[in-house]
Amino acid sequence: MQVGYKLAAEAFGPAELVRQAVLAEEAGFDFVEVSDHYHPWLDNQGHSPFAWTVLGTIAARTSRIGLATGVTCPTVRYHPAVIAQAAATLALLSEGRFVLGVGSGERLNEHVVGPGFPDAVKPRHDLLREALEIIRLLWSGGYQSYEGKHLRVQDARVFDLPDELPLIAVAASGPESTRIAAELGDGLFATEGKPSIVRHYRDAGGTGPCYGEVPMAWAPDAHTAARAALETSRWALTGWKVMSELPNPVNFDAATATVREEDILEKFACGADPGRYVEVAQGFVDAGFDRLVMQNAGPDPDGFIDFYRRELDGRIRQLEPNRPRA
């Protein structure tokens, strides 16, 4: 079991994210994960810095903690040849501490450039397959070319490659994306603790680690925590089909207007009761996830990190599945 800390890039500026990463290392977290967005989910979150600059700075300011994108879409806003180069560079600068998390993306971030984001799921999956093939090809060394249905590479070479290439964790939510994760990735990444996601991944031959984002909101009392999560993180209750389709923060604001505090309390571990946090994390462990990402939507990141260090670290790490995976 490894435990990570989610850097909320939509809620904090770049210098603050670096500061939190340093605190997370001191508190004993195994890795930090940062989303790679162009926009925040909601305007009132107020931030969305460039993830790769943030991660490079974290690599320079820390010595032990792992780093991960959670996740990068290497198909529209970025070309996969650029991500192959960026990930290799970050792996070198972090001395092997980097995990490349990738996914098929969200319209929120990808519509801002070029031809825009594909309207159908299948072309998005096809794009992701080609992107992963390109990244693997360029990581094999030498000059490479690739001619796909959607993506091309002409005489490209990544000159600075680490001896040990980064693990690639592929974001998935259904059978097709889990097949991509199993066939072209080294691990699985998910934002929902559904047993079916890990089951599909294993059934497709996937043997790597499974990363799951565990929803939490720390504050001295549950009401304060839930209100903070409702204010900035209610988008998390919309589900992946909605999260991948809406184009701008204003659309997420409208789509989540009916989310209630009770809905937050049902999904998130809120307040200061360690038992509730363990209960929510246990659901992810029972679903088959072995890399748990603590995703705090509460108003006080320092308070949450201290709470995790004092009350949760040992208890979370000791969790084991207590029922058959459905």
Automatic annotation (TrEMBL):
What SUPFAM superfamilies has UniProt attached to this entry? Bacterial luciferase-like
Luciferase-like domain: residues covered = 8-200
InterPro entries tied to this protein? F420-G6PD/mer, F420_G6P_DH-rel, Luciferase-like_dom, Luciferase-like_sf
In which domain of life is the source organism classified?
A: Bacteria
**Molecular function as annotated in GO:** oxidoreductase activity, acting on paired donors, with incorporation or reduction of molecular oxygen
Keywords tagged on the record:
Oxidoreductase
Q: Which Pfam families match?
A: Bac_luciferase (PF00296)
EC number of this enzyme:
1.-.-.-
Mind telling me which CDD domains this protein's record contains? Tetrahydromethanopterin_reductase (cd01097)
Protein name as annotated: TIGR03557 family F420-dependent LLM class oxidoreductase
